[in-house]
Amino acid sequence: MPYWLVGSTVIGPLVGSDNVFNGSLTHQLGAYALALPIAAVTALFRLTRPLSVALARPLCGVPAELYADGPARTRAARVRTSAWFTLHAGVGALVSGASLALPPFAVSLIAVPFFPAMRDWLEMPDDPGWQLALFPIAGIAMLLALAGCAAAAGALLAREAPVLLGPTPEDRLAAAERRATELAERNRLARELHDSVGHALSAVTLQAGAARKVLDSDPQFVREALAAIEETTRRTVGELDSVLGLLRQDGEDEANALTSGPCLDTLDGLLARSGVPVSYTAECDLTAVPPPVSREAYRIVQEGLSNALRHAGASPVTLRIAVRGEELEITMENPLPDRAPAVRPGGGRGVRGIAERAALLGGSAQAGPRDAVWRLSAELPLGSER
């Protein structure tokens, strides 16, 4: 109606009418034709789409997932939304106008045979005969036609709603990128939890099992094992808090969690708490390794020790870290026992996590048993930034 009123004020002077609300058919159609492009222009605003989607969802009976969410940010999305708004306003104007005018007229036609005064008002003959029977038929036909037009208009809008209010290719691409980012973040959190908490639990389990076996015969070893368990759990609580900061996603905590975490310069403490004898050789200055690479390398070594505990028990581990050209090389080996220890079901995530960490930095990693030896090798580019 507002667009039609604007069209009427413009069309009136153009057709030479003193009354801007002239009821002639030419005036009405001209105002209608002028109102449509005005509606199309006003619908180009970004917030038109969420408003239109909110109306279309309950009225069109189309599954909610077929509609786009949020304002229209691209040109194609705004043009589609404008087309929908114009179609909705144009078809709705015709149906609403007919719904206002036709029902009273149709009821009047149906009542003609029963009210002589109406026949006199229509200047009909005194004895119209069979013609009276046509008036109710015509009135009922008009009402049925109006209902059919309204149903057809609704079907048209329901068919076009997913096309014009649905996501554009750009929207689908943006949604796919958001899902990929969320999935990558979830995978990263899973790796952090698995590598930090999983390693700590493996070390604590080994230390507690060894202490239980010599509880009566070697109290000194038991005290050392309990001290190692205490230190491991204390450090793991701090690492766990950093990972949980990512889940909170409250700005400063998230930024701190992204840049915090143990690095290679604290590797000695990890090896001392691991619960297995480690022969460690560092052929480079670990403090000179870039922090992003150093953090991932620490986690790779940590997960390597967890896998060594899981697959080889307390067998001695050989660890070597060196720089070759522009890459940091990590090599870890330990002999497999003749009788492999029991492995919990559902494992394998740690090896995948090692490969994912290396891939994030543009490197590569392989881990697994080979020739009676469990071996891990990783190459991480030193120029990588995460």
What does this protein structure show overall?
By secondary structure, the chain is of the alpha+beta class. It is 63% helix and 10% strand. It has twelve helices and five strands. The chain has helices at 2-14, 25-42, 48-60, 75-111, 116-121, 134-165, 169-213, 219-248, 252-259, 267-273, 291-312, 349-360; strands spanning 278-282, 317-324, 327-335, 364-370, 373-381. It has a five-stranded mixed beta sheet. The radius of gyration is 39 Å and the shape is rod-shaped. The protein starts with a helix and ends in a 5-residue tail after the last strand.
SSE order and pairing:
Layout: H1 2-14, H2 25-42, H3 48-60, H4 75-111, H5 116-121, H6 134-165, H7 169-213, H8 219-248, H9 252-259, H10 267-273, E1 278-282, H11 291-312, E2 317-324, E3 327-335, H12 349-360, E4 364-370, E5 373-381
| Rg calc | 39 Å
Provide the β-strand percentage band: 5-15%
The backbone outline, from C-alpha atoms, is rod-shaped
Mean pLDDT: 80
Classify the helix fraction into a percent range: 55-70%
Helix and strand succession? Answer: HHHHHHHHHHEHEEHEE
Kindly state the number of beta strands.
5
Q: Main sheet: which strands, in order across?
A: 1-2-3-5-4
Low-confidence stretches: 342-347
- N-C termini distance: 57 Å
Query: Biggest β-sheet: count, sense, barrel?
Result: 5 strands, mixed
Regarding quaternary structure, how should these chains be classified?
single chain
Going by helix content, strand content and strand pairing, the class is alpha+beta
Continuous helix count = 12
